[in-house]
Structures are given as structure tokens and as C-alpha cells.
């Protein structure tokens, strides 16, 4: 008899045995039971094994949010392989880079992306299996990639794989693009990665601590019988780490349901309607880019949706302004909002907001016990000193970046015998021990010798009710080296779109050297589907406006 290990795949299999009739994945009218979820994943796992994949083989998911994305993720860990998220926005060169860098051996993709796959597949010598999920023709009108098997045919003609016991050497890997450079594969030890969520997720959803991996299936049955299962929905794509981990992988440890939106772009009305229809209890978003449209939908449609099922909103990966949190809570007073400071390389702190908590400052977080802030000479920042340092995440620290020892050595370092991840965030530690996040050091603007963090300026701009969104960056300046500039989009109710008025109003909240010298008003601030800032595109918009 296999001993239950701290491994996502093994636990999910036991959960499927315990609650086969419960719903694992929902998207619109599609409802996949736990029994079918496990069987579908097992058939895909067998197809991978038949194609010559094995332990540590990489399986790419070039997919929009869908049950097939979830099943592919499950299938890979079933045979001790490694599921790899692939950004569906990637075109030929970016797609080829990631698939080659990750050593992809199986690629599961939506047919609407097939023209891109067709153009790069012959340059991928490790590729053994192509699986096409039908969602219509590609952009060039084609449908069907030579050598690919359809997902439906594979499911109809493949016997489910036997279960394979983990050996303890498995890794989990997630690709992160960051704000600059090519995407990097962040590697975790699968056992440690699984343990982190096994121990942390129950408390996140309000459950008392209990046992471990061996108890998950029994707890799943207990929760199902009491109608208390976790029902989680990710607003951003599953290719975004927080969405995948908290919206899919963690709730499935307890036999929960992962609810997927049908739209491939943010539709706040669909989001609230789905929350009501499916009884979603926890929602994952990415800061203001998601929260502002959600607030507006509620304000414009008073009483249209029942928000009471939703107990918690979890945000990570982008700024979540204090005033926007308050607007959400004004519309849904029962909400608990967890603003998590973290990245693919690890979590560092959080800020909890409810109707009863004192008003907190944007970008001020309670640091986790394993988080430190260090100066350039590896000296820990003293609380209340006013010193700025680099945020270092301890605790669950990745093994490194896949096939990039140099970058790994710079990011993952040991200080006084403790290993930390330094991902570029800069912060101060206040006298009360809270951490004030200043922004990414790589985005810091040096203007006349003064350092300006774009995130602070963006927050000051967005406090203005007329401003919907903003991105700030530096451009060359003969006198100051760089000057602070940016792009803003105006709120629908704004009566003016005069950049000078926005700058003048912001002057009340910022030192003069931090104020944008120029702003360009654009229809929409460029962001990735996961809500993260697209600074290169923002700079292009600024330059094309002739500013």
C-alpha cells in the first residue's frame, strides 16, 4: 500500500476517490466531476507515457482557462512530470523561446493558437506529442496542426494510466515573465511546494488545522457532506501563478471546485454573475485593474447580484489601493480582502482589510515571519530607521531558475545560514514592524540624484477620482538624467481629461521631485491579462503621442 506523500498529484487522486460525484471544475455550462477529472487526467498521462515522456518531462499548457488546462496540469504531475504554464499571448519568437528553454516534450494547445504552434514546432527537437483542444480556427483561418492529435480523440481512445507513486525527487516549475527580460522557470521541490499549501490553505479558508496529506481525502468527504467545500474562482488566467495556485491547485487539495470564467478578457458583470450562480467563496484578482471595474459594476447595477457567497477576495501581483478596497467593502460589507505581497518566487507579507479594521495605507504590509529587508551590504534594516533595502523572502524558497545558474545565484542567496529569495522589491521597515513597499528596484527612476519608485507615484495619481489607471516611468533628460513621466486613463465619470489638472491635483500628495513632468492620456493602460503592468507598451504610447 502506497504511503500518502505531500504531493499534489497523489492527494488529488485520493480526493477523487473520496468525492467522485462532486464538481472539480466549472466553466459556464461545463461541469467536470472529480471522478471524470481524475480519469481524463489519467488518460492524458497515459498518452504522454506512450509518446515516450517520463519522470521530469515537461508538459506545456498553451491554453486559455478551460477544464483542459486543469486536466493537463493534473496529468503532468500524475506521471511525475512537470506542467509548464505558457502565456497564450506569446507569438512565434517568444513561444519558441519558452518551449525550447523549458524542454517541452508535450504541448497541449487551443486550436485558435494553432497557427503559431505550426510555425515553431519543427524547431523543437524534444517535442514528442502535440494535443489540440478545439476552440475554433486560428487567426489565419487554419484549424488542425500537422502531427497533432485532438484532445477529444485522445480521451476517446486512451486507457487511463495506472497511478505512479512519487519518489521524492519531483519538481514543480512555473514560468514568470516579470517586467523585463525573457521568461524564467522558477523551480520548487514538489514536496516542499505541496507542503506549503497543505499546511497553509485550510487556515486561509477558515478551517481549523488538521493532520496532513493522509487526512485530505477524509476532510474532502467531510466538507462535501456538510456542504462546506471550497469554491474558488480566478479572475486572471490560470497561467498567472496566484490564479493557478489559489484558484485551482490549493482548493483541489480539499476536494473543492475551481470556477472558471468564460470570457477571455475581464468582464466584471460576468464575474459577479458567476459568483452568484456558483456560490463562489473566494476570488483571486490582481489589484486595481480588476477591483475598479468590479466596484463600478456594483455601483451601476445596485442589487443586481447577490454578493453574500463571496467571503474573501485575494489579490497579488499588482497595486491594490486602499480607497478601492474601501469602495468594495462599502458595496459588500461582509468581505475580507487579503492583499498579498508576493511573486512566483514566494510570498512575503499581506494586508487584511475588513469593514472593522483600521484604514491601512496602500503598500504597507505585515511581513511574514520569514521575510527580512536587507541593505546592499547584507545588513538587516532596523525598524524605524528610514533605510531602504531589498525585500528577502525566506521560508519556501525556490531551488532556482531553470537552466540559469547565474540568475539563480543573484536571486537566491544565503545570509547568516538562511536562504532567501531577492526578487527586486525595495521596502522600508516601520517602527511598528510593518513593511512599506516602495517598488521594484529595476523600475526605480533616478532623477537628479533622487530615487523615485513608480508604484508610489502611480498610487498618488490614482487617488484622483478622475483617474482610472496609471503607469509611470523614466525617460532620458539632459538636465536630470531621467525625468518622471507617465500615461493615465480617465474614469468614465471624469469631467475633464486635462493632464495638467491631474498633475496639479497630485501635487498635494507627492514631493515635487516625484511628480510626473508630463502625462499622456490614453484610452486604456496597457496591462497583461493577469493585470500586471506592461511598461514597454506604456512607453511606446507615451512616445507615439509626441510628448
What does this structure look like?
The structure is a single chain. The chain has 547 residues and is of the alpha/beta class. The protein contains 16 helices and 27 strands. Strands 1, 2, 10, 11, 12, 13, 14, 15, 16, 17, 18, 20, 21 and 22 form a 14-stranded mixed beta sheet that branches. A hairpin with a 5-residue loop joins β21 (418-429) and β22. It is globular, with a radius of gyration of 23 Å. The termini are far apart. 49% of the residues are buried.
Brief summary:
With 547 residues, the protein is α/β, with parallel strands linked by helices. It has 16 helices and 27 strands.
Shape: globular
Query: Fraction of residues in helices?
Result: 25-40%
Structural class: alpha/beta
Task: Specify Rg, calculated over alpha carbons.
Answer: 23 Å
Q: How many H/I helical runs?
A: 16
Q: Terminal Cα separation, in Å?
A: 69 Å
What's the rounded overall pLDDT mean? 92
List the uncertain runs. none
Please report which band the strand proportion falls in: under 5%, 5-15%, 15-25%, 25-35%, 35-45% or over 45%.
Answer: 25-35%
The counted number of beta strands is 27
Largest sheet: 14 strands, mixed
